[in-house]
Amino acid sequence: MVKILNNPMNEDSSVRSVLRGGQRIRARNEARLINAAIQVFADRGLEGATTARIAETAGLPKANLYYYFASKETIYRRAVLGILEKWLDAFNALSPDDDPALAIADYVRAKMTASFNHPAESRLFARELLSGAPIVKHYLETELRDWVARKSVIIKAWSDKGLMAPVSPPHLFFIIWAATQTFADFSVQIDCVLGPEDRSSRQEIATDEIVSFVLRACGLGG
Question: Domain coordinates of the chain in residue numbers?
Fold first, then answer.
């Protein structure tokens, strides 16, 4: 009788395949739970939200939430920090060699797209700040402060080269954040003032207006 030996390489390949499959499932379920958490936290806040409601919104058993996240506070922190990191990524590739008008306009457009397409993210972040930022204050005092400082160096370099008007970079960011996020945070007010306007037209018109306003403030025409 011929004895058939198992091929260790085939076994290793099978193990890796199973692990990759498990990682994909984990990533998919975590994303579903975080997206659901953003909706629930934006509507109800940290105190008013429940893990049961988050799991129900995600279409997953409540036990799954605790499998991936230790607590309600854990998923809340992941959600809020993920929102902020995504917003900052839109300006991370900034270089002193970039055209300031194009770079700033692209950043404003990215922030406006985020406000119109993912308003719950902005509302959740606003809730966190209005409550004193108890969960993410340390991140704001360290990571966000460092990010603003790094981008400020580039903006100042543009000003020094005469490529744009001298501005206070931190205050430029405050203006951009406020002008773009208001279309998510105060959408009810905007709906009341503008009336039943087509949403796609509103986004296009508002984006062009905010881009033009910011560029003019930077001495970049617009």
Answer: 8-69, 79-222
- Say if CB 159 and CB 167 are below 8 A apart: yes
Q: What is the pLDDT of residue 108?
A: 97
Amino acid present at 182: T
The residue ranges of the chain whose pLDDT is under 50 are none
CA–CA separation, 84 vs 51, rounded Å? 22
Model's pTM, two decimal places?
0.85
The one-character DSSP state at 161 is: T
Residue identified by tokens 């105190």 is 47
Torsion-angle region of residue 197: left (phi > 0), alpha (psi -120 to 50) or beta? beta
Q: Cα separation of 100 and 181, whole Å?
A: 22
Q: 157 and 97 in contact (C-beta within 8 Å)?
A: no
Q: Give the CA diameter of the chain.
A: 87
Q: CATH for 79-222? A: 1.10.357.10
| CA pair distance 159, 179, nearest whole angstrom | 22
State in words which class domain 8-69 has: mainly alpha
Closest CA to 173 of 143, 204, 152, 142: 152
H helix runs in the chain, sequence order: 8-48, 51-58, 62-68, 72-89, 100-117, 119-130, 137-139, 145-160, 169-185, 187-194, 199-217
